[in-house]
């Protein structure tokens, strides 16, 4: 079901967005992130009460400044003077003598209590303003969900990996259960495909962290073609299909799950190179003068990495950083709250 939704989104979005693939990939992702942030701002303007949001934003700015003054002490003097003046008037009204210097402990207690009460009042008022704007924020979020899903799905299907180059070796991995280790898997020959290491490969054990599985590793050299090259792996009477697009601006999703696998194959995977933003920003020769731990992690030499522990791919991390940085900046540029 998810694959059907993804394919539908790609077919709908490709006529509009695929011409952008002619641009350098780093520039494309930058503009794509900026465009996403701008779209979110424009949708926000269309569905929210901008006058209300501007007034609330101004009030929150004033309240935050007052709270900061109280915390730093620059506003505490004003509070203290007002409180002490009130105490002086009360003393005078009851015909009592008031000498501030004679009551230092009282002054400190009054200042502390007054500052705390003032801060609580300002914080409560700020929270009320936030609750006032909450319905507007929900409208903006609801309006942005569908466009963001479409853009993210298109970016995953078109920007997450580098397309397979024509005439270059590309690995095709067939995953099997450990019980199939030692058996032979067969990649069916196709026009436009070469197999430098052979069409028949033994299933071997592969360890990835705590997970072990059987793997048949094929290497193919595809010719450039506007039509995908079929990848058909045969094993014990079973047939597992995938496809490889070479020499084009786009690619087919690298991983394909095999839902009907009577003989045990789980996944067919084309090992495409993940795209990393800013890879090659600096000349590769510069890396030789830096320590490996530094050159391997600088964006200019290896590209911005992802966060595998959170299932965030390199392109997605770059995309999120661009959108997160651009969204508040566009508030100043466009004036849209």
Describe what this molecule looks like in 3D.
With 337 residues, the protein is of the alpha+beta class. The chain has three domains: 2-159, no CATH class; 170-270, no CATH class; 284-334, no CATH class. The protein is built from eight helices and ten strands. Strands 1, 3, 5, 6, 9 and 10 form a six-stranded antiparallel beta sheet that branches. Strands 4-2-7-8 form a four-stranded antiparallel beta sheet, with no helix packed on it. Helix 2 (25-47) packs across helix 5, helix 3 (50-72) packs across helix 5 (104-159) and helix 4 (76-93) runs antiparallel to helix 5. The longest helix has 56 residues, at 104-159. The protein is elongated and about 105 Å long.
Care to count the β-strands?
10
The coarse overall form would be elongated
Main sheet summary: 6 strands, antiparallel
DSSP helical segment count: 8
Alpha carbon gap, first and last residue: 38 Å
β content, as a range? 15-25%
Number of domains: 3
Query: Low-confidence parts, pLDDT < 50 over ≥5 residues?
Result: none
The overall average pLDDT, rounded, is 84
Question: SS-based structural class?
Answer: alpha+beta
The helicity comes to 40-55%
- The Rg value, from CA coordinates, equals 31 Å
Write the H/E string, N to C. Answer: HHHHHEEEEEEEEEEHHH
Note the main attributes of this structure:
8 helices; single chain; 10 strands; four-stranded antiparallel β-sheet; 49% helix
Q: Brief overview, please?
A:
By secondary structure, the chain is α+β, with helices and mostly antiparallel strands. Helix content is 49%, strand content 16%. It has 3 domains: 2-159, no CATH class; 170-270, no CATH class; 284-334, no CATH class.
């Amino acid at each position: 079901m998810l694959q059907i939704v993804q394919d539908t989104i790609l077919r709908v979005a490709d006529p509009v967005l695929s011409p952008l693939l002619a641009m350098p990939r780093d520039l494309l992702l930058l503009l794509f992130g900026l465009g996403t942030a701008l779209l979110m701002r424009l949708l926000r303007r269309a569905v929210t009460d901008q006058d209300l949001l501007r007034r609330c934003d101004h009030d929150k700015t004033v309240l935050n400044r007052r709270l900061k003054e109280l915390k730093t002490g620059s506003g505490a003097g004003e509070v203290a003077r007002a409180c002490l003046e009130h105490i002086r008037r009360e003393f005078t009204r009851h015909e009592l003598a008031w000498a501030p210097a004679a009551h230092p402990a009282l002054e400190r207690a009054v200042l502390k209590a007054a500052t705390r009460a003032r801060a609580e009042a300002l914080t409560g008022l700020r929270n009320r303003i936030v609750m006032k704007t909450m319905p507007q924020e929900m409208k903006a979020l609801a309006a942005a969900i569908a466009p963001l899903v479409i853009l993210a799905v298109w970016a995953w299907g078109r920007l997450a990996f580098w397309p397979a180059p024509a005439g270059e070796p590309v690995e095709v991995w067939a995953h099997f259960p450990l019980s199939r280790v030692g058996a032979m898997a067969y990649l069916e020959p196709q026009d436009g495909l070469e197999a430098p290491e052979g069409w028949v490969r033994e299933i071997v054990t592969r360890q990835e962290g705590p997970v072990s599985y059987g793997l048949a590793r094929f290497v193919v050299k595809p010719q450039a073609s506007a039509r995908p090259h079929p990848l058909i792996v045969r094993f014990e009477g079973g047939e597992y299909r995938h496809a490889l697009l070479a020499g084009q601006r786009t690619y087919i999703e690298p991983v394909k799950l095999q839902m009907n696998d009577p003989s045990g194959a789980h996944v067919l995977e084309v090992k495409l190179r993940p795209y990393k933003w800013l890879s090659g920003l600096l000349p590769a020769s510069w890396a030789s003068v830096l320590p490996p731990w530094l050159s391997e992690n600088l964006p200019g030499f290896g590209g911005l990495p992802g966060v595998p522990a959170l299932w965030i791919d390199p392109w997605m991390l770059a995309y999120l950083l661009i959108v997160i940085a651009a969204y508040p900046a566009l508030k100043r540029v466009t004036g849209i709250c």
